[in-house]
Specification:
heterodimer, A: alpha+beta, Muramoyl-pentapeptide Carboxypeptidase, domain 2, four-stranded antiparallel beta sheet, two-stranded antiparallel ribbon, 43% helix, globular, B: alpha+beta, Beta-Lactamase, 2 domains, seven-stranded antiparallel beta sheet, five-stranded antiparallel beta sheet, 6 helices, 27% strand
């Protein structure tokens, strides 16, 4: 048995999310919120547009970093959460590999990115393919999958680097293809830094 | 016409032979059609452009003998199955004295296809070792998965090709099939392969290598490609032998991407 994506997606899609009086949702040992994707994309594009050409790479790295820090801490909450233990863990037979399969099934179920693992060399390299993600229609020029880059790097760190919270910045994620530049899918490759 | 090297007993008959071109059909289909029609006789083949000659003798559903150049029996038959260009000529009621095969036609086709698979594997291994020894290759650069999948779609009888992760994630698909929903196929295939692999490990018979499922309206054939599984969807089983043979090396190539 390995993690079955459809089983995870069906189970997680049924979960009811209820925000508190501040609009925050207490899930996975952290507080998450529910905001439109366009807000993130508008913010990203405005900050990229405002940056002078020589500092655009720095701004881009900052946007990936924001996603990474969020993904690293929230990701730890997710994979140790009760719901992940109930739904995903019973199907885990290949340890970290299956946990990552479960994580990408969760991304899909929650609408973060319709994505999955294409190739995985344990603790070395992971290739992700995504058919929908936040920045797929961002309107900016060039590859824009900042969020999934950060999340993929974070989850690979959680799976194969030193145990949380000491494993940050062990791996790095590059985007090699993107829906936003006319490719038929987005491709993200995580390798050792 | 050159002299036949397999001795035959020729009875005088009116010209009720069947002739045609291999570009319109293939040896497998032709033989299956004739044998299932309870015919008996010989199919004479000429390959283009080399003008090599071959013969297949059969009686109803029994494949009696086959010859391709100096090759006879299953090796000769396997060679004939790989011919794509040339002509065929079926002469009814011609019997062969030497029985070099003596198998049911379907069984003989499977044996021949298996032999071709082994030959293709050996060739690939030899090519790889030549490349390793030489340190460089004159072969074209590695194709990406989309190109390989498009080549699979060009195999006659293939409706759609899909590559699925072990968790059921549909990594890539090409072609279209009204017979199955690709997303549902991905999930179902992952569940099936899991069960099959568990069975394989409990029986201690090594890893799963091949699976055919024949339904009333579709046949699904799948193989592992790297870490993933590739599936081909075809409307029926009539071209399965040819598909299996032609898809084999493409599956190997596809495995390099996953």
């Amino acid at each position: 048995m390995t993690v079955m994506r459809d089983t995870v997606v069906k189970a997680l899609a049924k979960v009811q999310v209820q925000s508190d009086e501040n609009g925050l949702i207490p899930e996975y040992e952290v507080l998450v919120n529910l905001l439109p994707v366009s807000l993130l994309n508008t913010f990203s594009e405005r900050i990229m547009a405002a940056a002078p050409p020589e500092r655009k790479a720095e701004v881009e790295a900052g946007l990936v970093r924001a996603a990474y820090e969020c993904g690293y801490h929230t990701g730890c909450g997710i994979i140790t959460s009760e719901i992940f233990s109930d739904v995903v863990m019973p199907m885990v037979t290949e340890d970290e590999k299956d946990i990552l399969r479960g994580a990408y099934a969760a991304f899909t179920a929650w609408g973060w990115a319709k994505s999955g693992i294409v190739q995985l060399k344990e603790a070395e390299k992971m290739t992700i393919r995504a058919f929908d993600y936040y920045e797929a229609d961002s309107g900016g020029q060039g590859l824009r999958g900042f969020m999934l880059r950060g999340l993929s790097q974070a989850f690979f760190d959680l799976a194969y680097a030193e145990p949380y919270p000491d494993g940050m910045d062990t791996y790095i994620c590059h985007q090699t293809k993107g829906l936003e530049v006319g490719d038929s899918y987005g491709e993200f490759v995580v390798v050792k830094k | 016409m050159t002299q036949q090297s397999v001795p035959t007993l020729i009875q005088e008959q009116p010209d009720n032979s069947l002739k045609g071109n291999l570009s319109l059909t293939n040896v497998t289909n032709l033989l299956q059609f004739l044998s299932m029609s309870s015919k008996r006789g010989v199919i004479e083949l000429v390959r283009y452009p080399s003008n090599n000659e071959g013969r297949i003798y059969f009686v109803g559903e029994e494949l009696v003998s086959a010859q391709s150049g100096v090759l006879t029996g299953i090796p000769g038959f396997a060679d004939l199955l790989s011919w794509e260009q040339g002509t065929f000529h079926f002469l009814p009621d011609i019997a062969c004295i030497d029985k070099t095969i003596g198998l049911n036609v379907q069984h003989a086709i499977l044996e021949a296809v298996t032999l071709l698979d082994h030959q293709a594997n050996e060739k690939a291994i030899n090519q790889n070792s030549e490349v390793e020894e030489g340190g460089f290759s004159m072969e074209p650069t590695e194709r990406d998965s989309s190109e390989v999948m498009n080549s699979l779609l060009e195999v006659p009888g293939v409706d759609a090709v899909v590559v699925v992760g072990r968790d059921g994630f549909v990594i890539e698909s090409a072609g279209s099939s009204s017979r199955v929903n690709i997303e549902e196929l991905g999930a179902s295939l992952a569940h099936s392969i899991n069960g099959i692999e568990e069975m394989g490990s409990e029986l201690n018979v090594n890893n799963f290598q091949d699976m055919f499922i024949e339904y009333g309206r579709a046949v699904i054939m799948c193989r592992p490609v790297g870490d993933a599984v590739a599936a081909i969807i075809t409307p029926d089983a009539s071209k399965l032998g040819v598909i299996r043979h032609k898809a084999k090396k493409l599956f190997v190539e596809l495995g390099q991407s996953f």
